[in-house]
Please model this.
Amino acid sequence: MDETELVALRGAEGVASPSGSRDGVGPRAAGVIEAFYEDLRQEHLRQDHLRRQSDAFGSSSRNSHSRPSGGEAEAEAEADLEGGATPSAPSRSPTRFNQRRLYTDDERRQAAIDVSRRHLEEHQDWLFGPLALSAQELRARIALHHHVYVDVEDLGLPTGQRRSDDTFTEQGVSHQLLLDAGRSDFILPGGLELSFRQEVEATGTSLEQHSLEVEHMLRAFEDRLVTALLRCLGSGAPFVLVQAISRAMSQSGMANLERACQGPQIVVSGGEQSLRYELVQVSTRAWEVRTTLRKYRFEQFVVVDEAGLDEPAKVEVMESHLDSQILRSCAVLFEVLPDSDSAAEGRQGDSGVGLAVDVRGLVDRVELLDRSGRPIRLEVSELAGEDHSERGAWKAALGRRAVAFAQCFAAREPFRVYAGDMVSKAAARCRFCRRRARGAVDSAVQLPRRMVSGIEEGDACMRAPLRG
Model:
């Protein structure tokens, strides 16, 4: 399959429509939705509990016998969050607090569930018949739609109620898009292709010898990309549409695809990578963003298993065949709604024009082969029976360090470190690192060859589904 082809991964067996009706989502899909949101609720309660324990360990004024443990601590965290508590030290930021409230507050969580049900009702072919998706595939699309929808919903919320820290220019263009522009390829309507990597290669410019020139080229490339994007959307494009599309065509948008894919954390070492965003105009009011990430020709990768809290995080370095690859892609539709339909969607954008979100396709292919060309099956510990004791909190902290170790490993080829590659990788890790490195070197030239992952939000990892 061509890397840009968005083909739904279908289940082998169809699922009959309940009672011969094609209304609703059916009990199977309803169960997948409920399980998805319950997992999010439990995860956010667990994270809050671990933050509380971590803070308690660092405070010498708190005695060990006064610390709640197990179910008591989780109940305490849930009571605080659902009782309308304000962000405390464990929350660390209003956005994280708002994220947890979305899943721990029954009313907010139910509203999100209703949105997911409505989305699936519009895709009956995913639910019933010979091409029905498997439960795992349904969950991935539910997750992707939910995360994108929350991002769009945030655009119409007051700053103190938002679940993300994304910022935008006066024209509505995501700052993250500008920071990621040099590391991606863009295809815009009319056949316009923009690739900073290709432009630099065509000029024969050397990063080591012409770092200042490369930086000037990147600034000019960012300006041309913004101008071309705004011209494609049109002068009358709603502000919220520009925000949503530009965010989707950046690392922030890629993070939604990453979070939608379940499985162990995989950090690839070396190899090649391509990251492409394509914008397609579907109608006068609708635009589709097609995202494709492919990592291939890597000979080593690291698997970090931190699912269980009763054991130290496991970091395993594995050898792989050059034919191994990770291919992930999705198609997300953004449609501007008439004012009369905005209320029905339950949200308004900053411009007063509602925006509907639809996931049109998702591909998640992880093909890991050993040196002999045989498929690699990844074993991951079960989520059941997690330990919420103090030892579990220490394990969570060790798990974060394990991921950092894996990233450090992936930043170098065996026993060799390329300074330029490491600087470029660090410069592109996030918008804050990029700003610090802005005056010295940019990631655009080296990053397509040396990159930990296509999306580096938080732990900078890929997640691969279990393969039988």
